[in-house]
Amino acid sequence: MRLRFDVSALFLTFSHLTLALSPLQEPIISEAEADCHNACSALVNELGASVFYSPSSPPPQSFIDTLYTTQQRALVSACIITPTSPQEVSLAISIIRRHSCIFAVKSGGHSMCVGASIAEGGITIDLSKLDDVTVDEGWEWARVGTGNRWKRVYEVLELLGRTAVGGRNENVGVGGFILGGGISFVSRRYGWALDNVRNYEVVLANGTLTNINQASSPDLYWALRGGGNNFGIVTNFDLDIHPQGPVWGGQNFWLIDPASISSRYSRLNITLPSFTFSLSSIKNAALAGVTKLACKLGYCLTSQQAFRAFRDVVLAEQNDVYAQMWMSYCYVHQIDQFLFGAALVYSRPEEWPPVFQHYKQMKSLYSTAKIQNFTSVFKEVADMNQIGYRQMWAVIAFKMDEELLEKIFDIYVVEVQAVRHVKDVIPAMVLQPINKDEIAIFKKNGGNCLGMEDVDGPLILLSVTFRWSLAEDDEVMNAMGNTLIEKGVEMAKERGAYHPYIYMNYANATQDVFAGYGEENRARLREIQRRYDPEGVFSRLQPGYFKV
């Protein structure tokens, strides 16, 4: 009898356990998850079709495809809201605040930082439907919705013979680009994007929709000029626009002389894998023969020639505000060669202006430079930055130092050996100047919070811009990028060339962007944030990057 009782009890216990684990029962979720699902339900009740809320389904592919990196594409939000008006953004923030749910705001989705545009398990506010572009009657400024990408803005303005100080890649979103600084092909003449904002229409932490400009709120206006996403959700920017016709420019590429790379290998004690007979080795041997011929015909550069030309152009363009450029280098695994590249843009229709003669004298392997509409230049940059890959970006700044560039290239040549095998790898490094004249424009309308002075220029931004396909290669790619940044900072400090500024739009999630603005500016930003957001809505509930 006792045995039967024990068995019955055991069966009853097992039945309860089975019932508890039944898929028909509601899963046990955390308090934070419950808060977010309650917030999503409230948003559905208030905004209906503007909210995608399907806990058992991924978001629409059309939404996923707008995200630049596959790291961000892997994140899943509790719900996604796509407001159709600033008033809906205001209502959404009020609901999110009431339920204490984490959130992220997406303009174009081009951020390299995981979680910057998508709130995993939280609420993603997708601003893509806030995409109006309205030009004032005098064609002096335009109201631009934060959900725009620069492609649409430029197309509207080009019909009027105007342009804005905006992204050089037409696929980049308006919002994050401007709030992070915004370097443009016309920044030598007009400053950065943040220097050309007359007024911000902003949803504050308490849900208030307001206009912020130098006259109405000079402190918050200053903070928004470089302060990122820490102070509110901008729904519209009133931007200065400028007369602009056709320009000259394009992309230019040179092979790096394999003989100079071989001597570098010897000096750096790099041993390449021994030759093995395969289709790949046959292809590389054939390409080596083609490269040798190209070098004999004058299409190859040494690193010394490339960095000297870069230095000479940086110095020459101090006297020509129509010139803007960047230089890059990259190991191309498909052909087992190193390449140098230069994007040259002159915002007048003049072929090979004197400022770029140092590059003209070097025979390029391939060039797209020509007189063309500005929109064509922006499209070309976008075409070279394909979406849907894994990305690692990071950036440092330093004074122009030709020898430092050579030393960093040494490190690159060493570190790239570890990623030769990585699928679809493009481990590019980009160098671009920040010139004295554009820094001087930072003082416009009460200044910005970036912490640079014109006496600092010209500065060089060195950017790690790595691309690859597989998550299994994340560790080796991130390790290479981190090594280049850490050693670059160390050597720049040793040579007295280091500058603490970190450009937000190229920064890695591990970098302390606001430390580079200076302690005085950081303290002022924090004080302004406490005043406008005492509950910490944009610091506590918005975990995305970067935080004051």
TrEMBL record:
The keyword Kinase does not apply. One of its GO terms (molecular function) is oxidoreductase activity. Residues 1-20 form the signal peptide. It comes from the Eukaryota. The keyword Cell membrane does not apply. Coiled coil: none annotated. Keywords: FAD, Flavoprotein, Oxidoreductase, Signal. Pfam families: BBE (PF08031), FAD_binding_4 (PF01565). SUPFAM superfamilies: FAD-binding/transporter-associated domain-like. Residues 73-244 form the FAD-binding PCMH-type domain. Belongs to the oxygen-dependent FAD-linked oxidoreductase family. This is Related to 6-HYDROXY-D-NICOTINE OXIDASE. It comes from Phialocephala subalpina. The lineage of its organism: Eukaryota, Fungi, Dikarya, Ascomycota, Pezizomycotina.
